[in-house]
From TrEMBL, chains A, B:
It comes from Aegilops tauschii subsp. strangulata (Goatgrass). This is Chloride channel protein. One of its GO terms (cellular component) is chloride channel complex. The keyword Ribosomal protein does not apply. Belongs to the chloride channel (TC 2.A.49) family. Residues 521-582 form the CBS domain.
Length: 587, 587
């Protein structure tokens, strides 16, 4: 069933064109929209979409959407699967692998058909490059020991630059988030400022570059006529071209293609490459985070390729490898240093360039640059997640968690419901707290001794209350009223921002004094831990099962059968360090 | 730290040469040996290996070893990572991705160096094909709608053949396992029989084929001189070659290369291909499972390629695609139909053939053949795991598990230890059961009421008993004696078959009456579930956390604080169906 969905995503992925950041975003957005059952606001709803209104399917769909985005942006279907695996999904299952593969396979087929359709130049720059954007495949490159040393150094420096990029980006994004929070005018002003800086750089800097005479016997036109090409004339006299302008005044795709191209050792002056590198590195930093749909991949590849070409040109006399291949390795080192992805970057670069012979070197460079950069800070996407304050669970529990137990971090007074609870109590509890889950405990006379029944979700309680099946007496029912009163999908997960709110419900004095039976909507098999469970192990449980709530039960008998509820927020370092200020931050 | 290990594995992976089955096995074996701290029997031990004597590191090492095996066998480093991800590891973590990547990167570099070294023909057939074994890269293939239909049909039939292969292989392996269990003579006899059948087929069948005249203007020698080549003369007169002999009398690698080769539409007679297909399909079935190191990948690729070439030759007049590319797609369809892997097969084929342009078609074929074959049975590796009776947990819980609770399947009488237990009781319990974990419960006078302390492992209890730190009185100690008496690694996981046994320990009557404090070696944070927990959820817990034991605790207070222990065997379908014969087997 989800496969059908995957193919819808795949087809939309194939049609959406652009760059990685917005593509991944667009893919994920479409997926989320489908997962909500369409948009009611824009009258785009389908009834059958209701089957996917649950956490797991929605999470899977968003992962598939991200994969479709990368697959379409880089025309790299396998790379898309691996990107989703390595970066997007914190909770991987083999079914998900198959679903993302399905999605990107459809993307690949649709993309291939569109490229075929656009071959006659009907679609602007879209068809350019075919399915392989920067095709490098040619003769088998040969390399020896001295090349390996050069490549190791390239990887090390690339890793340092990547780590620095992440560090600076984190600082800049923190400033931007303060500016962006001030409202739309500040946002627009920031965007305009960055646009002006970008334009000034792009137009101003080429004036610094000297004109070069056109190479003799080149296959390409020189100077270039039209939109793309290696030789932009700019201010130069006829028969000459401006190398820096050739990089700045092309699409990013063409600039990358120029940098990767082989047999063009002397096409770009060293000074042009150097200026372009600094400009692109800085512009890449300041552009991400403003209110435009831009990504990180292409700026990083561009900066890395320029860096690689600089190294390649410098080492030219000593090395057999073409500067174009050095540019590829430079791009790999920057990607490894900023994204910290390995397998997916490998495959994406392979799918972008069709240069399988370089794979061992690309792997080596990625290995080195990731290792080096990991000494300084975290990957760029992890940094952004932390900065946004999302309760993202690390794969490993923090070392200090080993010294704490589950009950140490349970926060706030515990609010629990009786199996048959007074409506007034429920309404009060929902009003004064924002909790999304409440433990349900049967107490005498319903049971002999207090006994944990399970967990109810806020959203389910609200739906139940809206049905107004209240009773005068505190007695357990058969639960059949729920089946009579509600359909199977009334309790399905509502779309974002569309859930019922407690403020929407009004009850009379009389209703508030009545009782409602929570048993039919209670999850009677919630995951529980004993209060003395190591916090590290509880964190692993959260991460491995993708939990939202974890019930903490007492160790010794005879006490109230629930100690508290753990949520992801309770396991965040900020919360724990707030409770235990003397805890050492790292091991 | 594990990275160092990965690189050792990587280097060994690079040096071990052969085919996928034995390669994966070899890689995993070396990894397991390292994870045991070397082999004491052959005096290959290193002291620092003791740091990896635990379940998780050993599991990771075996996964890395498998990845190294595939990477070396197919010269496909990224494919190796994905194979390990998709097939070998049931419990994936991002750290593992990085470790397998590290391992295969080292494999790639070592392999590259070895190929370079062997370029001058010093190493027999090893250097052949370079880093890309079956290089197909050439012009961009073009295909239209009628080709797509042909490819979809190819995928469907390939899926059927793949499913049939799995079905037949399962039956044959069941017969073989009965034969192999009879001892070495039967094993050898079986192997000899299969060898004779294989030889008879290889030598006898080519006599059926007619001789073809050598193609005019071919680049290759015809008939072939030496070991490899497309045109074997066999019984034919000079200037002629035998197509069937060209397939049978080559190495499998060369046969695949011949089948994949382009521009050779008429090289193989339809009848030759047909005979070869049937022979290879059947020989592949009967060879796997006999006592020789053979794999499944290469026979399946070979059969698939032949099948694809047959389809390609049949459709020749209607299709633009070369029969060589059809052979590639046929191989993909068979791999998808038997292995049921998608992403890794895609990448392995890409790395084998360097044919990126066919990627969308390969993905499409894999999609179709896997879907079709999934209708019939499970993937070949899953089947083998089931047949071997290993307690392999499915990623999903079986539907009938939703109707059971944890306490339903807890088996046997519960054996638990007191926190301070009489030595005689422990020895008795260890002798009469084979359990690997025992719950520890504090009882008066050690605690006020019976209270669950945690779980002790059999191996740890044995080590503790061997220390003979016994007491006359039943009192709780500070636990410091364990620190004084044992080193940090005495409790480390022993290598397979090397653990202490209860039969190795002898105690006097007096010692049997003494007490030992189990608290210092008790895991006080075991994962627990309430007895009413849905069995489906308990199974998910097992799988997601990679558990071996799960404690089942009572729901209502006042009872003995432990109901039983769940193990993987308790969750196997056979065990559950044994307990509940009326349970429906499927949903």
């Amino acid at each position: 069933m989800l496969q059908i969905f995957g193919s819808i995503l795949g087809v939309s992925g194939g049609f959406v064109l652009g760059k990685e950041g917005p593509m991944v975003h667009t893919g994920a957005c479409i997926a989320n929209l489908l997962g909500q059952g369409g948009s009611r606001k824009y009258h785009l709803t389908w009834n059958w979409l209701k089957y996917f209104k649950n956490d797991r399917d929605r999470r899977d769909l968003i992962t598939c959407g991200a994969a479709a985005g990368v697959a379409a942006a880089f025309r790299a279907p396998v790379g898309g699967v691996l990107f989703a695996l390595e970066e997007a999904a914190s909770w991987w299952r083999s079914a998900l692998l198959w679903r993302t593969f399905f999605t990107t396979a459809v993307v690949a087929v649709v993309l291939r058909a569109l490229i075929e359709f656009c071959r006659k130049g009907k679609c602007g720059l879209f068809g350019q490059g075919g399915l392989i954007m920067f095709d490098l495949s040619s003769n088998v490159p040969s390399y020896g020991t001295q090349d390996l040393i050069a490549i190791i150094i390239l990887g090390v420096i690339g890793g340092v630059f990547g780590g620095l990029f992440n560090f600076l980006l984190d600082r800049i994004l923190r400033v931007y988030s303060i500016i962006n929070e001030r409202g739309a005018p500040s946002k627009i002003l920031l965007t305009i400022t960055i646009s002006i800086i970008t334009s000034a750089c792009s137009y101003g800097l080429p004036w610094l570059a000297a004109c070069s005479p056109c190479p003799v016997g080149s296959m390409e036109e020189c100077p270039t006529i039209g939109r793309s090409g290696n030789f932009k004339s700019f201010q130069c006299p006829p028969g000459h071209y401006n190398g820096l302008a050739s990089l700045f005044f092309n699409t990013n795709d063409d600039a990358i293609r120029n940098l990767f191209s082989r047999g063009t050792e002397n096409e770009f002056h060293m000074s042009s490459l150097f200026v372009f590198f600094i400009a692109i590195y800085c512009l890449g930093l300041v552009t991400y985070g403003i209110a435009v749909p831009s990504g990180l991949f292409i700026p990083v590849i561009l900066a890395g390729a320029t860096y690689g070409r600089i190294v390649g040109t410098l080492l030219g006399p000593m090395s057999d490898i073409d500067p174009g291949l050095f540019a590829l390795l430079g791009a790999a080192s920057f990607l490894g240093g900023t994204m910290r992805m390995t397998v997916s970057v490998c495959v994406i670069l392979l799918e972008l360039t069709n240069e399988l012979h370089m794979l061992p070197l690309v792997m080596l460079v990625l290995l080195i640059s990731k290792t080096i950069a990991d000494c300084f800070n975290k990957g760029v996407y992890d940094q952004i997640v932390v900065m946004k304050g999302l309760p993202f669970m690390e794969a490993h529990a923090e070392p200090y968690m080993r010294h704490l137990v589950a009950s140490d971090v349970v926060s706030g007074p515990l609010i629990s419901f009786s199996g048959v609870e007074k409506v007034g109590n429920i309404v009060h509890a929902l009003r004064i707290t924002g909790h999304n889950g409440f433990p349900v405990v049967d107490e005498p006379p319903v049971s002999e001794a207090p006994e944990l029944v399970g967990l109810v979700l806020r959203s389910h309680v609200l739906v139940l209350l809206s049905g107004r099946n209240f009773m005068k007496e505190k007695v357990k029912t058969s639960g059949s009223f729920v089946l009579r009163r509600f359909g199977a999908f009334d309790f399905a997960k509502p779309g974002s921002g569309k859930g019922m709110k407690i403020e929407d419900l009004d009850f009379t004095e009389e209703e508030m004094e009545m009782y409602v039976d929570l048993h039919p909507i209670t999850n009677t098999s919630p995951y529980t831990v004993v209060e003395t469970m190591s916090l590290a192990k509880a964190a692993v449980l959260f991460r491995a099962l993708g939990l939202r709530h974890l019930l903490v039960v007492p160790k010794t008998p005879g006490r109230f059968p629930i100690v508290g509820i753990l949520t992801r927020h309770d396991l965040m370092p900020e919360h724990i360090h707030g409770l235990f200020p003397n805890l050492r931050k790292s091991h």
